[in-house]
Amino acid sequence: MSTTSLRNPWGKPRWLVGITWVYILWSLLPVLLAIRFAFNSGRSRTSLQGWSTKWFFGDNSFSVFGDPTLQDALTHSLVLAGLAMLIATPLGIMLAIGLQRWRGRGSGPANIVALLPLVTPELVFAVGLFLLFTTAMTTIGLGTTAQVIGHVTFSMSFVVVIVRGRLITIGPDVEEAAADLGAPPLAVIWRVLLPLLAPAVAASLLIVFALSIDDFVVSQYLASGADTTTVPMRIYAQARAAPTPALNALATLMLAFTLIALGLAYAIFRFFSRGEKGGSAIEQIASIDSGGGR
Fold first, then answer.
1. Out of 112, 119, 222, 247, which could bridge 146 as a Cys pair, Cβ 3.0 to 4.6 Å?
2. What CA–CA distances, in Å, run from 19 to 12, 25, 123, 145?
3. Rounded to the nearest 5°, which phi and psi values hold at 40?
């Protein structure tokens, strides 16, 4: 055995690359198969029968855009995701700024509590919310409002993590410099901090959208009837008994929405962060020093 092999018994990482690609292909195979049946020309969901887009919009009774129940499920999922974006992101930003600046007594437990939804099993979280809305908060009850509250609650922790990561990279020096130049606290936040947080804010908005539109457990437990059925709930209820590949088409649309949201999050984050070495912070402070923040 040579000295080189003793120093590096694994050799070149060819096997590691191969194992990685095998894992990726194995993970994608069921998804690609489900997408393929969404374009099946026949009604079968087990045998391939050519290509067609009729399960999306070609059939007036069974396609996604021909079946009112499928349309309602898609619309409700998009409404929940939109409301979660608009509510969870601002709350998460404020919570992240507060936790980042809090250094007094109780800051440690507060940080732990804020991140609990990340480590709490979703089933436990959903059951807890179900009991809350059916016993202690009966005035709200189950339904769309409860689903929105549930989605906001579990997705806000992701916003906190993203925004706090950005705050750490910015550092406190920028805010201190702006304050030294005479900027009042609100001007520091609106004219310096928030523009620098733009990449994290954009990423948070789209991550919340992707999390909400794909959620099943919380939506299922907090639903009140057919009008609060989401796409994941509909797919779960009829995946085995559905007579046509229309559900495959609906799942394909959901996957497309999720991938587009994640892709936009990545692209926007890269766009706002490109070439950033602190120059953007200097520009913001300079604008305040010129008189805009006084």
1. 222
2. 13, 10, 32, 45
3. -70, 135
Contact between 212 and 85 under an 8 Å Cβ cutoff? The reply is: yes
Distance in angstroms (rounded) separating the CA atoms of residues 208 and 213: 8
Provide DSSP, 15-82: HHHHHHHHHHHHHHHHHHHHHHHHTBSSS-SSS---B--IIIII-TTTSTTT-HHHHHHHHHHHHHHH
Cα–Cα distance for residue pair 154/146, rounded to 1 Å: 13
pTM for this one?
0.74
Structural domains in the chain, sorted by start:
12-52 (no CATH), 64-292 (1.10.3720.10)
In angstroms, the CA 81 to CA 2 distance is 59
pLDDT, tens only, 258-284: 888 778 877 877 776 665 554 444 444
Which amino acid is residue 190, in one-letter code? Answer: W
